[in-house]
Amino acid sequence: MTTPTTILHIIDNLHMRGGALTVVRDMLSEMKSMDTRRHVLCCLQSAHPEVIYDFERAGIDVVVLNHHKYDPFLLRSVCKVSAEYCATAIHAHLAGSIIVGGYAKIRRAVPFLICHLHSEPSDWLRGQLERLALRHADWLIPVSETNRKRVAEARGIDIDPHNVIYNGIRLSDFRNGNRAQARQTMGVSDEDVVIGFVGRLHPVKNVDVLICAVRLVHKADERVCLVVVGDGPSASRLHKQVTDDGAGPVVKFLGMRNDVAALLPGLDVFVLPSRWESLPLAPLEAMACRLPVVGTHVGGLPEVIVDGETGLLVPPNDSETLAKAILQLVSDPEMRHAMGAAGRCRVQEHFTIQNTARQIKEVYDTVLTRTDG
Hints:
This protein is an alpha/beta fold. The protein folds into two domains: 6-168 and 353-367, Glycogen Phosphorylase B (Rossmann fold, 3-Layer(aba) Sandwich); 171-350, Glycogen Phosphorylase B (Rossmann fold, 3-Layer(aba) Sandwich), CATH 3.40.50. The chain is 44% helix and 17% strand. It contains 15 helices and twelve strands. It has helices at residues 19-34, 49-57, 74-84, 95-106, 124-135, 145-155, 179-186, 207-220, 235-245, 260-263, 282-288, 301-304, 319-330, 333-350, 353-367; strands spanning 6-11, 38-43, 61-64, 87-93, 112-117, 139-142, 193-198, 224-229, 251-255, 269-272, 293-296, 311-314. The strands form two sheets. It has a six-stranded parallel sheet with strand order 3-2-1-4-5-6, sandwiched between helices. Strands 9-8-7-10-11-12 form a six-stranded parallel sheet, sandwiched between helices. Strand 1, helix 1 (19-34) and strand 2 (38-43) form a beta-alpha-beta unit. Helix 4 packs across helix 5 and helix 8 packs across helix 13 (319-330). The longest helix has 18 residues, at 333-350. The chain is elongated, with a radius of gyration of 21 Å. It starts with 5 loop residues before the first strand and ends in a 6-residue tail after the last helix. The model has no long low-confidence stretch (mean pLDDT 94).
């Protein structure tokens, strides 16, 4: 019997659920039913046991190397794993893994390299190392058109517009939920108009701007409150902001939750006020739950939110304009309903994990049939 081709997926870490990790997990889970190749996930740094369990429960083989990101022996370990599994290709996810994958390709540890551009390097040095790595890739996968243009310009490389593959979600996870139960869990009443944010509490997410905006909206309509789901480095600063502003009755922090799909039906409007995004999952999940989404006109968000149809787009760092957009939806239940329905249809058409997996399989079919790896 012929041994199946193995694709080694490498990722920086498995610290937290969400984002690129969710895309990789769900995509690999879908691959099991559509691709005969073997897929193995190699985590370069450390991993949280619960996140490992999520992948293994989905039937995905996981190898954890537990290296520091600047460990000089990291590349050697990846080359060893690649040899052990007789990998035909490395599919690198996130900036650190792209760098390692590029050097593995340079050392001929693997014939083919596919780089998935979920995000961008956080510093100049890693950016320069990524530039070199990308030049040795056989295929680049940007997650949005804006992402493609930014990386192409910053790294000085050509990326075909047809290479863009949107992130997707499993639509069946976001069916009509129990609104009353969700509201009870969040501690809000039936009369409240609930604005929601789900994501990492990081400066780039601009949750402080959202808090200011909701306070303005609350002055116009006292039914309005904000529910914040997530944790991160900005958490203590945001809690202090709410306390100092006397906004405690208006803002509820729920921390990290594993039941986001069950909570979303309890919201009325979803807001993502970020300074930058590639192509986030949070607004897709909200749209799948038939929620109108207010987002900033940055990164890949305009490719997700159709302004005036599935939600509203506003400039970043502008709490007053954000407040006006939220108030517009708060004041018009029919608009919220229509945008929510349109959003669900848009996700179904463009942003399912099945579409994502199918397009990535097509990349494998194209790249792995080449003879010049």
